[in-house]
Amino acid sequence: MNTRMRRAAIAFCATGMAVSLAACGSAKESGDKGGDKESSAKKGDAITVGLLLPENQTARYEKFDKPIISKQISTLTNGKGKVEYLNAKQDATLQSQQIDTMITKKVDVLILDAVDYKAVASGVKKAKDAGIPVVAYDRLAQGPIAAYTSFDNQEVGKTQGEALLKAMGSDAKASSKIVMMNGAITDPNAADFKKGALSVLKGKVDIAKSYDTKEWKPENANTNMEGAISAIGKDKIKGVYSANDGMAGGIITALKSAGLSKLPPVTGQDAELAGVQRIVTGDQNMSVFKSYPQEAETVAKMAVSIAKTGKLDSSIATGTVDSDTDKSIPAVIVPVVSLTQDNIKDTVIKEGYYTLDEICTAKYKAACDKIGLK
Question: Helices in 36-180 by DSSP H: which ranges?
């Protein structure tokens, strides 16, 4: 792993989030939420960590999250820690069954990135009742969560909204029509992204159409965008807020199919390779760069700490968040960066996400040369 990925986890308290970060939560308060009485006995390095990820359509989960978490757990346990991994493939019912599987396997701690943050609450409680603490990863699941790490999701939406207005230039006015392509309603992060974006966009532009995109699927975003083009008119759309890169791809395909000679600015998130390449060509205006290595390494530290000692080391998480069902959950919130043509070298290349050769293939070499990406 790139040494720059091995940064200390940054815990900070941000305002304006749907989940409130308690700036004055003490180290003791953070540490006390981290484990259960049933799992309080100290263990050695030979622990078993359950890892449940929500889907495999987004490139990040198999490329970054799973391998980084597994490697970090191995490092923290001197190679003795074991990871039991399952992917729900965007199926909440399947994920519920996977939680049962982890309980049956008697894992020492469970890292959970929920498909449906509400539906999973009963499974979280079932795991806790079986003496298995659950660490929420990336999405704040409901239920008795022991710890949580993610990004400042409202800040993600604000970053996207601000970038969209900047890219619109003189078209950033109250009469200009834009389309909002939000994420799935089953993902609590999607609501935060939308809230953050609206805090910037509302009143500044005319949100002519807004969609909550089922399962975050690019093909669903493509269908929604085709509907928006038909309803608004292709030449009247001055910008598109897309909550992530995958959907941006479907949106841009729809815009090109409509015969637009010049695409309106389109936002994104996740810094997927295809998204970065669209930024290089100018088809996509920006993405949100999030340090998945930092997030993944943080959740591994949380899980190992809880599994080995029965509680979370208070030095790992100095902030807290509230969910709809639980208060003062120890949390680490990782910062985000707006990714544009200007900082590709300083973000995804510097962090080791992709090499220059991976981005600037023969198809994109001329575009890379044009923006000085050499």
Answer: 60, 66-76, 92-104, 121-129, 153-168
